[in-house]
Structure to design on (752 residues):
């Protein structure tokens, strides 16, 4: 079934307009790269001679290093661009930066930026393939892909699963990309958090909304905990950390009332004790570290696929 | 056409002069730069120099169009636009008078700057350039600017445009002080605490695009507040570029209550919604932002009901390199002078929202009254300035930003097919613009 489908996307900007078939194709491709990651020599020559620029304007531990390792396993050359060490500090614009790097001969740009739409802006300004590694509050497609990959690996399919996404939905690109990926794969998604952290007109999205975690947790098959992002918020949308964790934290106590086989995922980094208790994060229901491992295979798949479309 | 004189006979056009209730085919005679007569006038009777007769058959002849909200970026940002280039763009759009906003660098907030703008406008010898001075020093919304001295220098009103006056006490003080001079106080209604650092309308589209949104309440709350102040401090008040359905209700009520309140609307708020921001194209980024279809419908209804006084472009030039940034960081604003008439026709005439006299009124006698130039402009009464716009209401043309006279080309209208083309723009009897396109005579 996967061989009849032809991958045409030169860029991975977001999942909002992806079809179910396209998402499944990425996951199937990730499966084959997963196998590579079991070998002793974890390398294939698929992208040998290609140059991949990791263009990161925001800090990152998982996404950046995961793309680096993924690119290396595909035998590509990786260039690490960090905003802090670049001529951005001298006032150079994003587009001038991209054009200058392009003049050096690059094939793929993996971009993370604090402003929504930057991946799209780059895709119409330079010739390289663009992969969105997170743009403002808009999307973080590879995170959602590795999230659904992890769930699928564990459960076989997402059809009919009830998934809760908890936290600062308004400012979360992970939430948006997950809403698209999960609903397209047949899951029922509920957004959970205080009203002050819900985006405008959220009910127009294909999701349910709840302000009461205790009411919904017993029904969930998967719970995706988002980090409360202090560094993004201008003023506090909730009164205190302890009040937040009391009402929306994933505690041991709440886990007692959840399904025995509920899956716990988190994109990281975690605020241990705030949105998630350590015992839960490190407990038997948690697939948090598997997410990170799976991230390599998923990102190898994405890098590989966009490079095939460019031919 | 021979060399510029200030005498013209314009024959056979459909003359639409809303202030005087004229809408008929007639001839217009301009002598010594002033309107002398409207009626049936032969060339012999007119006694104008050779080459000073325009045959306007099939065209509309109206008082010179007025745009009371433009940004000409001088002093300070001359690479974007100068008073000279902006004036030239204005006459190409059919405008014989414009009002410049004071958010330049330095701010236009003293008599010297007012005189500077007037002088540069005269030198350019295109459109007649008027200017509003700042309401508060550096438009910071704290201390009053020298409104008295600016009034004496000929300012036609005061505004902190770009910023709204956040503090109610300061706004009350501005209204009180300005009342001494009989000039209009013009507000960019935006409560910054509700605008929340937004870059587009707050709603479903801002949610799925992941951009911070500007709530409609940011405009409506300040508008409502100002109306309450005007109830007790009866100074003439003008609300700039209104964009929401809620604002329409507030304005309607204010007018029903007989308050000295006027308002304007921009072409993009009649034609574009926030659905256009899909691709993060910054040509759709302006302030106030594009809203929803429901807001457009409410604004059009308000225009139909006569609640909107004037149409104004808010012509805001920016270089390509300035707009070519992330949507979050790109400056707000688009240009519009050179296609404004066609856009208004598309938005309001084509679907029958209003008729021609009403459209022309919103571009001539109404803005003239607001800025206090109605004793000599805005209509074709005898002895008014010979400011006339002649346009072909049926001529179809395609917007080509590369042909714009303005230094800046930032707008979403490139490639738009419009109907309604300016053929002649006449200021004080002098032809300051003539369409040299394929259909020119």
């Amino acid at each position: 079934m996967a061989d009849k489908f032809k991958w045409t996307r030169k860029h991975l900007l977001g999942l909002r307009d992806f079809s179910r078939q396209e998402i499944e194709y990425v996951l199937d491709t990730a499966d084959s790269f997963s196998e590579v990651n079991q070998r002793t020599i974890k390398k294939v020559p698929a992208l040998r001679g290609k140059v991949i620029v990791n263009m990161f304007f925001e800090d990152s531990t998982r996404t950046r290093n995961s793309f680096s390792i993924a690119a290396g396993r595909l035998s590509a050359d990786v260039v690490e661009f960090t905003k802090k060490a670049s001529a951005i500090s001298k006032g150079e614009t994003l587009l001038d930066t991209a054009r200058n790097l392009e003049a050096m001969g690059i094939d793929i740009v993996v971009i993370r930026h604090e402003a929504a739409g930057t991946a799209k802006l780059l895709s119409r300004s330079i010739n390289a393939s663009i992969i969105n590694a997170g743009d403002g509050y808009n999307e973080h497609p590879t995170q959602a892909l590795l999230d659904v990959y992890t769930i699928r690996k564990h459960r076989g399919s997402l059809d009919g699963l009830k998934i809760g996404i908890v936290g600062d939905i308004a400012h979360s690109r992970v939430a948006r990309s997950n809403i698209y990926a999960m609903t397209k794969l047949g899951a029922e998604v509920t957004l959970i958090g205080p009203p002050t952290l819900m985006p405008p007109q959220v009910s127009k999205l294909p999701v349910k909304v709840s302000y009461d975690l205790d009411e919904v947790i017993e029904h969930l098959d998967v719970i995706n905990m988002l980090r409360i992002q202090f560094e993004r918020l201008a003023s506090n949308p909730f009164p205190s950390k302890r009040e937040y964790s009391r009402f929306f934290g994933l505690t041991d106590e709440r886990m007692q009332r959840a399904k025995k086989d509920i899956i716990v995922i988190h994109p990281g980094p975690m605020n241990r004790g705030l949105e998630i208790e350590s015992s839960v994060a490190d407990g038997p229901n948690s697939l948090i570290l598997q997410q990170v491992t799976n991230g390599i295979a998923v990102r190898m798949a994405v890098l590989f696929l966009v490079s095939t479309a460019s031919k | 056409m021979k060399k510029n004189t200030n005498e013209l006979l314009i024959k056979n056009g459909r003359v639409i002069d809303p202030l005087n209730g004229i809408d008929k085919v007639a001839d217009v005679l301009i002598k010594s730069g002033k309107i002398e007569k409207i009626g049936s006038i032969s060339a012999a009777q007119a006694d104008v120099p050779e080459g000073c007769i325009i045959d306007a058959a099939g065209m509309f002849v109206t008082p010179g169009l007025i745009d009371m909200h433009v940004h000409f970026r001088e002093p300070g940002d001359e690479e974007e636009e100068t008073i000279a280039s902006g004036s030239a763009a204005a006459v190409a759009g059919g405008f014989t008078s414009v009002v410049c906003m004071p958010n330049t660098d330095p701010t236009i907030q003293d008599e010297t700057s007012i005189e500077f703008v007037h002088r540069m406008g005269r030198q350019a010898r295109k459109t007649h350039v008027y200017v509003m001075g700042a309401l508060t020093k550096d438009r910071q919304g704290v201390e009053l600017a020298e409104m008295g001295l600016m009034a004496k220098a000929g300012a036609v009103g005061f505004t902190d445009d770009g910023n709204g006056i956040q503090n109610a006490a300061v706004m009350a003080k501005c209204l009180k002080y300005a009342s001494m001079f009989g000039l209009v106080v013009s507000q960019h209604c935006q409560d910054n605490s509700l605008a929340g650092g937004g870059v587009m309308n707050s709603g479903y589209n801002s949610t799925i695009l992941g951009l911070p949104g500007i709530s409609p309440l940011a405009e409506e709350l300040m508008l409502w507040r100002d109306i309450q102040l005007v109830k007790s401090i009866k100074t003439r008040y003008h609300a700039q570029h209104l964009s929401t359905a809620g604002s329409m209700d507030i304005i309607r009520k204010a007018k029903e209550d007989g308050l000295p309140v006027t308002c304007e609307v921009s072409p993009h708020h009649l034609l574009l919604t926030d659905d256009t921001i899909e691709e993060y194209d910054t040509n759709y980024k302006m302030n106030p932002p594009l809203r929803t279809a429901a807001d457009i419908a409410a604004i059009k209804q308000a225009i139909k009901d006569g609640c909107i006084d004037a149409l104004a472009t808010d012509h805001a030039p920016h270089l390509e390199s300035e707009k070519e940034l992330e949507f979050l960081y790109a400056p707000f604003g688009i240009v519009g002078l050179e296609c404004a008439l066609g856009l208004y026709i598309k938005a309001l005439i084509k679907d029958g929202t209003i008729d021609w006299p009403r459209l022309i009124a919103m571009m001539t006698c109404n803005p003239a009254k607001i800025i206090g130039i109605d004793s000599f402009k805005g209509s074709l009464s005898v002895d008014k300035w010979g400011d006339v716009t002649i346009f072909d209401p049926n001529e179809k043309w395609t917007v080509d930003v590369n042909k714009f006279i303005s230094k800046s080309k930032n707008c979403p209208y490139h490639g738009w097919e419009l109907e309604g083309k300016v053929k002649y723009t006449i200021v004080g009897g002098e032809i300051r613009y003539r369409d040299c396109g394929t259909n020119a005579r």
